[in-house]
Structures are given as structure tokens and as C-alpha cells.
Amino acid sequence: MRKLFLSLILSAALVVPATALWAHEPGTYESPIVEQRVKRFKQSGGDIQAIFKKHMGAGNFTAIEEAAALMAVWGEEMPDAFPTGSNSVGADPAIWENFSDFENKADAFAKAAAKLNAAAASGNAGAVKKAAQALGGTCKSCHQSYRIKH
């Protein structure tokens, strides 16, 4: 299903004028692929915040495990959400100039999320904290290279 969706989006990119594929003003997204990736990034950001500010302190390892599983999947799918020409307000053009590095950073995020998932499943609070910090480090690394803040 995902491949069908992506191929439809890529087909539309050939038909629709290029200017309709990316946002023109902060907060406006015209491309479905851009809207979807913004949504997924916001979800991951909210999940990582909840892990640090809510779930770790409460010892809610189930919630951490669930959030980490979602983030691991997102990390694996992330490069597919950045097809050529899908520029947007927050995405630095360097993503497409250094796409293999971007893919490596997405992979590091996915692997760190999987480690957090495993740590949460173990119920070891120390391991969860260490894995959550490592996951946060992968976010920061990618943001420093490829995110434009407005």
C-alpha cells in the first residue's frame, strides 16, 4: 500500500507543476508527501517529549515501548518521504545534496528507536534512560544538518 501511495505521489510530480509540490509560506503545505512527513515528525517529536517528560518518570515502559516502535518504523520510512522535488519550509536543500548521509541519519534514528523499544521491554530504567538519550542524540544530529527552523 505504501509503495502504491508513493508511486502515485511520484507520478503526480510529473504532471503537477513543480511549484505546487512544496510550501510557499511557513505553515502551508501543498504536497501530500510533505504534509505526511510533517505529521510524522510532529508525532515523533511529541513522543520523544512524552518519553522524557512523562513516561520515564512514571515508569510507563509500555508507553515508551509503543512510541519507540512507531519511531523505529518512521526512521525506516523517512528517506522515502523525501523524494526529489519535495522541498518544504523546514527541509534544508542539503538533504537532497547529501542524501546518503540523510539516509544514514534516518537509519541511526531507526536503530536507536529499536534499541529504546528493547530497553523498555526489558523494564530496566537505566537502560531506558540511556537509550532515550541516544535516540534524542540522533534527532539532534539530523536537525543540525538538515532542518531549517523558522
Structure commentary:
- This protein has helices at residues 2-15, 32-58, 61-77, 94-97, 99-122, 125-146.
- The protein is an all-alpha fold and 150 residues long.
- It has a single domain, classed as Cytochrome c/b562 (Four Helix Bundle (Hemerythrin (Met), subunit A), Up-down Bundle), CATH 1.20.120.
- It is elongated, with a radius of gyration of 16 Å.
Question: Helices, strands, pairings?
Answer:
Blueprint: H1 2-15, H2 32-58, H3 61-77, H4 94-97, H5 99-122, H6 125-146
Helix pairs in contact: 2-3, 2-6, 3-5, 5-6
Give the quaternary arrangement of the chains: single chain
Shape: elongated
Question: How many E strands?
Answer: 0
Q: How many distinct folded domains?
A: 1
Main sheet makeup: none
Short description:
The protein has 150 residues and is mainly alpha-helical. The protein is 72% helix and 0% strand. It has one domain (36-82, 89-146): Cytochrome c/b562 (Four Helix Bundle (Hemerythrin (Met), subunit A)), CATH 1.20.120.10.
